[in-house]
What does this fold into?
Amino acid sequence: MRVRTPITTLLLLLLLLPALRAQDVLTERNIFDLQQVVESKASPDGRLVAYTVLVPRPFTDTPGGDYRELYVLDVPAGTSRVFVGGKKTVYGLDWTGDGRMITFMANFPDRPGSQVYGLRLDGGEAQPLTDSPTGVRGYTLRPDGGAVAYLATEPGDPAQAKLKAKGFNAEVYEENNPHQNIYVRTLPAGETKQMTEGVSVFDIVWSPDGKHIAASVALHNTVDDSYMFKRIHLLDPASGKLTKLVDNPGKLGKMAWSPDGRRLAFISAVAVWDSKEGSIFVTDVPASTPFGELRNYSEGFEGTVTGIAWRDASTLLFTAEEGVDVTLRSQGLRDAASRVLLEGGRLDITGFDPVGGMTVLTGSTPAHPTELFTFDGKQLSRRTNLNAWLSSVRLAKQERFVYKARDGLEITAVLVYPLDYQSGRKYPLITDIHGGPEAAYQNGWVTRYGNWGQVAAARGYFVFMPNYRASTGRGVEFAKMGLGDLVGKEFEDVLDGIDALVDKGLVDPKRVGIGGGSYGGYFSAWAATRHSERFAAAVVFVGVSNQISKRNTTDIPWEDYHVHWGIWTHENFEKVYDRSPVKWAQNSRTPTLILHGTEDPRVHPSQSLELYRSLKLHGKAPVRLIWYPGEGHGNRRNPARLDYIMRTMDWFDFYLKGDVSGMPPSTLEYPSE
It folds into this structure.
């Protein structure tokens, strides 16, 4: 037997070190091991909490999205058990008023599309509560449990179905979209009645006394209508009468009834140009004042409201984005201002549900994806630990980063450091741009298939995630700063943030990359053309390249007009074209990777083809175009998601980590299960 000397042992350990450390950092493949809580709903007495857990679909399964399993937490005992597990997807949680049954939506093989199911806690299988031939899009329970109201599209014409089966499948674009109606089904009798026609309904909430259903209603069943033209109506289930309650302008968000049924709170835009439904309004039922005279409880608030619920008949709770943080706040109807219950920086809250003196929360931190929490007003208690293996993974430092734009405006961002950061050394940078622009990054878990976060940090990058002007989280006026000035001052905010990091001696200005999806892809295409001298690599995902053709092919033209441009193209053709990356393609010296789903209705895939062709013909750097067949505005299936993050990280590594020519290999070596 050979005896190893200390030096031999040391050399062996050094050789093995990469293998030993291979699992102590987060990799692209590890993203698809992460589980997280998606939604939660407390029982009426607060003793139980139903919640769903996202379970990634294994790559050995047929391609598709992730599964969602149903769990129930016993709050006093602190234990959870699974109620619906395996390869199923459960969502839309609620409880019957007596707390004996959980209701949810699921697409089980015994019924067409998604249906509403009820599962009794005392045992047995989940029972269908609806049998819509076209599937269910949303639902609300009558408080006494005697009926369920649900949303579904109208059944198609059987004669047309027969013709389609014979190959006569021509589609009349947008004209024949079936309306999305309200149906009420009595329980357990199963008698169903259609309650609306000639309009489309997108959200419904039953009043506590069972006398009304609040509904967000638009004239047409289109994405643009769902964005811009929903108005609040009241449905009387007894008579079927539908009447407008509030003529809210622009975007409409969540609605919530007060416990006494006398008021309806809702999240709304303040005007048609407001890019985000982010302000709280409360109306009496029936309404006593028009929208313009309703009090805006968010007036002057430098934040964006994301969720609302009632604590009691005179007190609202709400969550709000405030810069890169999320807060939980309380607002009395007679109070001049709200007060903070859970300060920012503790939890990136994604959902909440108050019951009694407890609030159930879902949220993440920089160290772990979304988990389940309870909050009693003082103590925040974590109730799940879905990714215990993360405790053995080294994660990079992540912090709130604040800097001044060139005009003095304060900009907030999330900054992730290289994992083994050393002071005095300059690192490559990936600038990660959010979409929208009516969105924002929060300082929680920031690593997903479309955000490089800790994966890039483990490879030695700074990751800079700015909330440039026009983002949410800073109030209405901040969000409005992008109106009519696309990639103007909002893009300068990104450049100023990069300069701030360079000035601090953290980043090598010659090794700066940029990437993002949708509006973030637009920014990245703009960076690779109009400001090519600043960027050594770019990743453009489902991004805009030609604003003229984009505006004529998108499924949200009215939203684009009202909250982004404020003009039609023919009113200032040169300005619209001037803000198009293809105009500046001849300037490009930035290697650009372009990726797009072939079924994208929001940003037509031709946008990526235009960018590819213009860069191929007139640019002076490598360019590659990747199509994702069957994917839309973002990738849904896990194989396409894995391909995206592997391919983009390879692109950044190739161009930001050395002096190279050509392009990285076009084929990838996917990890096996």
